[in-house]
């Protein structure tokens, strides 16, 4: 009995220590942001947004991979519907930002050519994220939580991204340069495109609901018996996991604020690719003639988006510490590490030919009214189906 009590007290102290560490890291981040502002002031907000994105993802467990994968694997659309909510809110907020900011503000919606590269990239990315156990955002979030498997996944992602950047010129000549950039408001009126997109998202939401509802028991109303007034602020907003919908709403507002203040929507793989390029460049490989990096005025570590993946990991780390959840989580077997690495490589490579991962080329592209976001999302869905088959056959 005493041993159990001691273990319980030790576990409680461990959680308190994690919370203290989260506070310390938060203070260090504030100091670090001051130095960023002091010496490279235009990049401070990138770091701050990365921290916030990582924190929200960790507390809500918002996982776009699950939104695609679980449709086929367990016929569940809970996360799928949260993703749709995020897209719908982002669509409305982006619409107001695009419509009411003056042309002199130079805001840049995420528009990308749509073609065979979009489909191929989406299918490969869908397969990769399922066998890796997470997309770019989910992998970074889980690295911050201490997952060994996702650490291998992000290593594969970095390698795949630089290989994709190397092959970018081939894909550019084959498909990207020959494919049209289709901005939906050019086909309709601006608000007509908004109405159409919201309508499509509503239909998809209802289809997702009925796809799941046909295989589960009717919803039951649960009567809460706990006294919410006795729950502390920490327990309610930090310790307790947030719902997927809460994560979706917060991410939509954060992405919109990112878009408004930094004039580009949230993306991850651009930063990952420039970090990879910076590392390879430091190894005395000349990448200046690569088409992908040649088009950037601030390549490699100087690119502002290079701060996003790093700060997202730290934001997730802070979230897991604040809730007392952080621990090193080893993979169940070596085959999971191998699958994570391969999946990460596939995601990194495919993101370069399709214009991003399911953040930049999907969650940010659709609210920008770029047709390639819709085609990419459908292609990811197809890839997720095949990725699920591989998962069941070789891993589960």
Question: Could you walk me through the main structural features you see in this protein, from its secondary elements to its overall organization?
Answer:
- With 396 residues, the protein is mainly α.
- The protein contains 17 helices and no strands.
- The protein has one domain (2-217, 237-395).
- 46% of the residues are buried.
Jot down its keywords.
single chain; 396 residues; mainly alpha; 17 helices; Sulf_transp_TsuA/YedE; transmembrane; cell inner membrane
Cα(first) to Cα(last) distance is 38 Å
Spatial extent as radius of gyration: 21 Å
Largest sheet: none
Q: What is the string of helix and strand elements? A: HHHHHHHHHHHHHHHHH
**Residue share in β-strands:** under 5%
Mean pLDDT, all residues: 90
Number of strands: 0
Q: In terms of per-residue confidence, which ranges show pLDDT below 50 for 5 or more consecutive residues?
A: 1-8, 216-226
Number of domains: 1
| Overall morphology | globular
H/I helix tally? 17
Percent range for helical residues? over 70%
**Class by SSE composition:** mainly alpha
Fold topology:
Elements: H1 2-40, H2 44-60, H3 64-73, H4 78-100, H5 116-132, H6 136-145, H7 148-174, H8 184-187, H9 190-213, H10 233-239, H11 244-262, H12 269-282, H13 291-294, H14 307-322, H15 334-354, H16 359-363, H17 371-395
Helix pairs in contact: 1-2, 1-14, 2-6, 2-11, 2-14, 3-4, 3-17, 4-9, 4-11, 5-15, 5-17, 6-7, 6-14, 7-12, 7-15
